[in-house]
Amino acid sequence: MVDFKRSILMPVLVILVCLGIDYVVPEIFNPYLQTLIAYSGINIILAVSLNLVNGFTGQFSIGHAGFMAAGAYMSAFLTMTFPHWAGPIVGLNFFFNTIAGGLLAAAAGFAVGLPSLRLKGDYLAIVTLGFGEIIRVVLLNIEAVGGARGMYGIHHSASIFWTGFWVFICCFTVTRLMNSTHGRAFLSVREDEIAAESMGVDTTKYKVRAFVISSFFAGVAGSIFAHYLCYLNPSSFAFMKSIDVVVMVVLGGMGSISGSFVAAIIITLLPEALRPLQEITTIDFRMVIYSLTLIVLMLTKPQGLFGELEISDLFRKYVKRHS
């Protein structure tokens, strides 16, 4: 009974906190800063979900933007075609449309993952890269979703509340998953796939499972992106978007949820923080400084900001050191 109350208490507290933030943020921050907060949340979901594949399972996917696109377009299409299919409440429709977008992305992840995850390393990266480009080119040629013109007029259903809610769901799911027997199987695949197979672990099944879960949350992030920006274009999901997410995972630490969380915020805010420099120098040095910063961080911290540790691990080390 106590465990049941604890399991219910956490989601309720998170929902209340997200509602409070959703009420306070518009009162404190201007629309520009609100957009940065929303984009940070979207990137957190993308980075944490990709870390499940690249960090915890030891695979190398660079097609995450393709799954994000699948979820974004599916959710936006449902919103514009069937605006009230789940009832008159806008938030409820957005929630179910986001689930639908995530499920389509998960199905795409399963379709790609089942045949390709028998591959390893660079070969898997090439397959996922090809899939991401296929999705983008297909969307460019489908007039039902706007084609090259893009999809506009999408209802602004996403908010800071929904962004925070899905950030929690993603981080909570991956954390609980990695603390379960499934998580141990993922780690065994990463450490030594041959040894894992010899111990009876179905490595292909667990790799596909990680890929599907990761793809689902990429689709969720795409849905939030679509309903916050209110416009979609295939160019938003190009190869460089996938690279950005990979950079977040590597910078934060392969196998660290906290690292992905922090790195996603840094990667989102750093280019914008450097924007005033362009006004002072009249030359856009932002991307040069941005790139140099990443190079310096990776030279000084090759394992990423957190390595394989979480914030709780660092806190325990700090307390032990000063006790």
Write the layout of secondary structure elements.
Elements: H1 2-28, H2 31-56, H3 64-81, H4 90-116, H5 121-140, E1 151-152, H6 160-178, H7 181-191, H8 193-198, H9 203-229, E2 231-232, H10 239-252, H11 257-273, H12 275-281, H13 286-300, H14 311-321
Q: What brief labels describe this structure?
A:
single chain; 323 residues; mainly alpha; two-stranded antiparallel sheet; 14 helices; 2 strands
Structural class by secondary-structure content: mainly alpha
Terminal-residue CA separation: 36 Å
Pattern of helices and strands = HHHHHEHHHHEHHHHH
pLDDT averaged residue by residue? 84
Number of helices: 14
Main beta sheet, described?
A: 2 strands, antiparallel
Total number of distinct structural domains: 1
The low-confidence parts are none
Instruction: State the share of residues found in helices, binned by percent.
Output: over 70%
